[in-house]
Amino acid sequence: MKGPIVIIGAGFTGLAAAYELTRRGIPVVVLEKEADIGGLADSFKINGQQIEKFYHHWFNNDQYIIELIKELNRQEQILFSSTATAIYLNNKFYKLSTPMDLLRFGALNILDRIRLGLLVLKARRVKNWKELDTLSAEEWLIKLCGRNVYKTVWEPLLRGKFGPYAGQISAVWIWNKLVLRGGSRDKAGGETLAYYRRGFGTLAETIAEKIKSSGGVIKTSTPAEEIIVREGCVKAIKTPAGVIEAEAVIATPALPIIADLLSPYVSGEYIDKLKAVKYLANVCLVLELSHRLSDFYWLNVAEPDFPFVGIIEHTNFQPPEDYSGRHIVYLSKYLESTDKMYNMNREQIAALSLPYIKRMFPDFDDAWINRYYVWKARYAQPVISRSYGQTVPANQTPVKGFYIATMAQIYPEDRGTNYAVREGRRIAGMAADKIT
User: Fold this and answer.
1) What's the pLDDT band for 411 if we cut at 50, 70, 90?
2) Containing H/E element for 170?
3) Verdict on whether the full-model pTM lies above 0.90
4) CB–CB of 99/190 below 8 Å?
5) Strands (DSSP E) along 132-232, which ranges?
6) What does DSSP assign to residue 323?
7) Within a domain: residue 184?
């Protein structure tokens, strides 16, 4: 080999790819433009304890990440916990954690409650997801549970998540969500989720240390500025610190970023295809409170005028004692990067959001807030539109030796660290097979 395999991006896809390559004895260099590793699972500290900037958890059936943790001999760090889910609709809270909760869901009549409850069972009977690829989520949900259930429950949630794209979202996307969450249940029908003790950032650091101990190199604050291609084959990566020779390259950032790297060497039609995938940004307001807001871990907000679609009370999942007694709450909003809220500063976002928290929780007092944080991600959620399966780009690009593995290519599943690990290890195997 003339050089290492260079991996662009130290999120969980890039780290998993580097881990797999070093296991095979192949030298790697990982380039990360940010100062920290982890990608969308990047962390910050509250009273010395790492916690994710954007809420994270696993389902109890997320096999790929759990297998990796076992290989690292860190399985004792996985914590499983039952969680409570609810929806805030028409200024009321409705618990939706178990089948019995569905039967008590007063926002629907009894027949529609049964239709809603049977939805997961109907989704799990789908054997071939490709049959859903040309359908919108709206079309499929109305067919399965009726227009009233769709209008009451699903339409507000889809609009809250995808905004103007809600009517275009693929049935495959919502089908996968239903199957995944429906399969992560305990014997009583409640949801069981998993978390990594001391946070996902700690896991990312553990993977990074394993990579380094096996001879790999991870360079943070080092963006890939250009790729160098000769005779149709990638040869090197230009960075602010110099040029790195490369036997192959695996790129894991968002597709528009990859398109810019490839555009000097690839046809406009291919570049247009990469850039055609739309992404929503995310704004996450994280509150560090002295009091609990509710008993729910995951609270879907189905009110169209609210500036967030979800309230995730992390310390109803992991105990507040892990954070010096603080109660940690995420307020999440997906939106376009041109949206006014995305371009607000920290104080403006808090000022916009807190009145709605008070509307939901009348006992809430500003004095409960010890600190608050605002995190933003430009490429947080690919817009999985109808017929998306026909547009997903292949891992091999027109440039020989240049591979792509991004969250927009995780299909029919949705993005997340579990599938990031699967795809990272798979693309590493593809690249290794070509050069060994």
Assistant:
1) very high
2) none
3) yes
4) no
5) 191-196, 217-219, 226-230
6) G
7) yes
